[in-house]
Amino acid sequence: MNEVWQPVIFDKTDAAQCAALKELEQDTSLTFLDERETQRNGLRTLLPSPEQSLLEESDRWVYFPWRKTVVAVLGPTAFRHLRLDRNRNKITRSEQDSLGDLTIGIIGLSVGHAIAHTLALEGICGTLRLADFDEIELSNLNRIPASILDLGINKAVVAARRIAEIDPYLRIEIVEDGITEDTIDGFFDGLDLLVEECDSLDVKVLAREAARSRRIPVLMETSDRGLLDVERFDLEPERPVFHGVLGEIDSTGLRGLGTRDKIPIVLDQLDAALLSARMAASMVEVSETIETWPQLGGDVQLGGATVAAAVRRFGTGAHLPSGRIRIDLDTHLDALASPHPTRTEELPPVDGADGSPPSSFDPGEAVLDDAVLDDAVLDAARRAPSGGNSQPWTLSTDGRTVTIGIDRSRTSTLDIGFRGSCVAVGAAAFNARVAAAAQGRFFGERITDHGVEIALSERDSGEITDRRLLDGVVGRCTNRELGTAEPLDAGVAADLVAAAASEGGRAVLLTARESISVAADVLGDADRIRYLTPHLHREMFSELRWPGDPDPNRGIEVSSLGIDDADLSKLEIVKRPDVMALVDAWDTGAALGSDMRDRVRSSSALVVIVVPGSTAKHYIRGGYATENVWVTAHLRGIAVQPVSPAFLYARTPEEHQQLSMHRGEALQELNSRFRALLDITDVESVALVLRLSCAPKNGIYSRRVPVSALGSG
Asked: Where is the THIF-type NAD/FAD binding fold domain (predicted)?
């Protein structure tokens, strides 16, 4: 019984196997375990739902002679599907299938046991071939996860049994005599990869000579400072063994060496100067106060994880060159330090210490000179909204005219043809006009393709002629909190439509729940594409500002995003380009649009500001209409959030392709669906989308660049 390591699998649909199982059932010394229903429930609840063929696959009964136990399990395909489901997406389904075809040989089942076990756990092999002549001794149990019940049993047998109890379908082959000249050819036949972990120096070299001649790569993990060696003989068949650090070496000259004789060679091979201090000191004591070099169980387990990572790279074709690396946990632990705060600090107050809107002037002062009034107009202009709070405008005045131009250096990929910048300039001009009119100084305005000129008259008096509208300009802010989906009041809706019309725009309102839900799906899908397109993703996160950011006067402060700590943690993940690249490669990431979907569905309405053309002047006029609608909603107590789908300013197929090379067609289709939902004509253009909600008040105002830094130069 000590040499038995293979489980016996019975399929009741086979008459002979069914009869053999019934014979086992008569043996009262055996234990039968049946947890199939739990396994089936686990299979049924997987996402996505398994194919029907998996659900209907016949079960198996597995007899483990060394355990005197028979266990019911799912069929082989369903078993693997369920057992390895938690590997996703660190290992994709296609990668799992590719890795499952590997035949891996492991020589030496002390460190090799941990490696074989880890490979089996992750399902990243199809066949494991294990070779070791030695038996389990009590002194092995500091690093081999066996038990005292395994004493005296061959190490390869113990490893094979343990793996069989994890996955009885995994093919295991063992060579109980270890690697010799008689067994080496059979052991290497059909191998894709060798993991060498034996103690014998001559076998180490012999195995590499055999691997090199057959162009089989070799991995070795040495459990001191996490040393991993990779020798890609498959790519470099002339590569010297051990990277050439031992010079010309032959396996025959190393036979019969005692432990003490091996030490100089081992030290040369491992590079004595880089050994851990404790290992180096122990080498001096070998055969004196200790029998051989020490090994720790934790270091051995780390070796299992390290080799598994290398096998995953090899099996999936990822970068894995020949070479050597140390994954030294002590070195990493020496570098322990407090994490840099990124989200936990309170943001400093924005201008107003009490969270009130930033203010550099009090428009209610009784006496104001012309210079102060000019500053007031410019200050109102800079409070306008802009995509990502980029503030793409220049502001200047000569006392008679306020000029608001387009700062073309503040653009982004979404700002096709500076259309978004034109909308921002229009909003800034609306604010400037309101401030000038409130002081009795508005004389007229001229919109050009390059911006807006507002003519100022002499000051009539210190009286404010329209304080309420000016309060709306000063107090307007973005509120991204979730709403209650309470219906929009009909009177408010009428006011918003009138506000857009008075500035030459058209406000299209979506208030029906079904229409809002359709829009939420479109906008959510557009957000997903923005995350998965590298340059759009990079620009999106460049807009965000964390505490201590060196450019705090532009961009969006994370505290204003209306998300909780859990979502802030997710933000740390989704901002990583490497993570998004994997999600893109897997064509997944439905959750990337869920935040937008949830916010839109919580809204009372969406209002889309439309203009009757697509010139710069049209988009500037759209900025006027957008700001008037926003200020009107704010004065009615409605929370407003601008929504900028990636397709917002794209009009042609080429412009959609410019946004995303791989998903341009998808963006164009989303754009078409959105315009059809809103009944927007081909001639019309969208200036901006606003989400309207009944939501808790949000007193965080985006920072602004000082007026003095916004001159046209």
From this structure: 85-223
